[in-house]
Amino acid sequence: NPPRVRYAAQEVGLEEGAVRQLCRRLARAGELYPIARDHYFMPEAVAELADIVRELAEEDGAARAAPFRDRIYPDGSGGRKVAIQILEFFDRVGYTRRVHDDHIIRHEATSRTGLPDRLRKRSFPGGAPGLQNREGLSSGP
After folding, report:
1. Interval 78-119: pLDDT, tens
2. Cα 63 to Cα 21: distance, rounded to the nearest angstrom
3. What is d(CA 54, CA 96) in angstroms, rounded to the nearest whole number?
4. N or C: which end of the chain has fewer CB within 10 A?
5. pTM to 2 decimals?
6. Three-state secondary structure of the chain
7. Interior CA angle at 50 toward 99 and 124, to 5°?
């Protein structure tokens, strides 16, 4: 569970605004993914989480918040809120679609290995998925 921007800034002794701006820039470059406000994940972590969502969907037909939380926090240390934020991220980027409480894999957008091909790239014209506007240009600073 990566720290929020404010805690990362405190930890390294930098101004929160500067760390936030750096995270946004890294997200536009595809080096971080904005899961929720001020909560960023590395691409490797997103790929691992996508694999867990795929495994749950294969086992149960869909990923749901509680089983997903239990899988990513087997020791019970994590909360349902973060699990939901991650599942909602996958809905936003097109890996899954939400139907009631279920998050169903979009097979047309995925490969067998997990994430949609467009999320596996390391360079994104116009910024990382989820930060682009309709014209493919990044929004934000």
Report:
1. 888 999 999 999 999 999 999 999 999 997 655 544 555 555
2. 32
3. 9
4. C
5. 0.75
6. CCCCHHHHHHHHCCCHHHHHHHHHHHHHCCCCEEEECCEEECHHHHHHHHHHHHHHHHHHCCECHHHHHHHHCCCCCCCHHHHHHHHHHHHHHCCEEEECCEEEECHHHCCCCCCCHHHHCCCCCCCCCCCECCCCCECCC
7. 105
